[in-house]
Amino acid sequence: MSLTVYAPASMGNVGVGYDLLGAALAPIDGSLLGDRVSIVSSPAGVSLDVEGKWADKLPPNPEENIVYQCALFFMEQLNIQQGIALTLEKNLPVGSGLGSSASSVVAALYALNEYFDTPYDEQALLRLMGKFEGQISGSVHYDNVAPCYLGGMQLMLDTEHKVCGSIPSFENWYWVVAYPGISLSTAKMRKLLPAEYDKSVAIEFARNLSAFVHASYRQDAELAISVLKDVMAEPYRASSIPGYELAREALDKLGMLSTGISGSGPTLFSVTDSLETAEAAQAWLDSNYVEHGVGFSHICKLDALGTRRID
Question: Where is the GHMP kinase N-terminal domain (predicted)?
Fold first, then answer.
């Protein structure tokens, strides 16, 4: 038996929902923006090969790779003696703000669960994904792994019985994402944030997020855009992302509706309901924000499918 799993890139926070909102991304050109993990049977033990554009950015020792560690843990927990050989196709840059570590972890654990006849249900598997992704990012939060796994836009609930719930998206929105070509540590970017927030900031954050969720269910795009802002992280991170503040101003002048930092950055996202405006924004970003040959940009819709088998 063999199988291959694809796990899409994702935006954590989506600006308005720090640690509580995330969305999966699907480029409109049909390309697959995310990592892939393949599994085939092997005589004994666990082995891992790594390939793909960003493979050289990962530890050269396979045992230090999170995909290998996922496999070892999964098989030890279930006392599985069967040998397997995994291949990770690393298609997302590390430290990009596109859920790179989440994509690898989700693809690996989804593939393992499928290969061994789904011993974990959806919620148990999601919690396991969060645990392993947290080993890389520095803390357990689900705003990348949940949308990467389940697709669409996900609101973190983190109750005893349910990690997250999907909320409606705006089907006519285009999400332009641009990765400039540098890497930023999620853990280090989190350290830029204050240990405590003023009460007025906490209230504004809660108001904006609740209004965005309300607007999503009402399909009130005007209201959703008006509150799609980041008062928790962007004020402290923007200056640490080269060119971000200039890009945000330029995108606003081009007519983009809202711009924010994807996850911890340096990838930015910008929203519009016009394909023509999205294309103009992408052209500006390719010329002024993205390092040629290293970074990239995509015009996306939200990926409604999430992680899936593609073999």
Answer: 65-152
Helices (H), the chain: 66-77, 100-115, 122-137, 145-150, 186-190, 199-218, 221-227, 234-237, 244-254, 275-288
Give the C-alpha separation, 75 to 214, whole Å. Answer: 42
| Percent helix / strand / coil, the chain, rounded to 5 | 40, 25, 40
Buried-state track 124-156, b at ≥16 Cβ within 10 A, e below 16: ebbebbbebbbebbeeebbbbbbbbbbbbbbbb
What would the CATH number be for the domain defined by 2-168?
3.30.230.10
Q: Are 178 and 171 in contact (CB under 8 A)?
A: no
- Binding residues, by number, are 93-103
CATH of 174-302, picked from 3.90.1170.20, 3.40.50.720, 3.30.70.890, 1.10.3130.10, is 3.30.70.890
pLDDT (tens digit, 9 = 90+) per residue, 181-227? Answer: 998 888 889 899 999 999 999 999 999 999 999 999 999 999 999 99
Q: Express each pLDDT in 142-184 by its tens digit.
A: 999 999 999 999 999 999 899 999 999 999 999 999 999 998 8
Amino acid at 9: A
Q: How many other CB atoms are found less than 10 A from the CB of residue 11?
A: 29
**What is the pTM (predicted TM-score) of this model?**
0.95
Q: Is 149:127 a contact under the CB 8 Å cutoff?
A: no
Give the DSSP H or E segment for 13: none
CB-based contacts of 239, cutoff 8 Å, min separation 6: 245
Residue with tokens 């030890």: 76
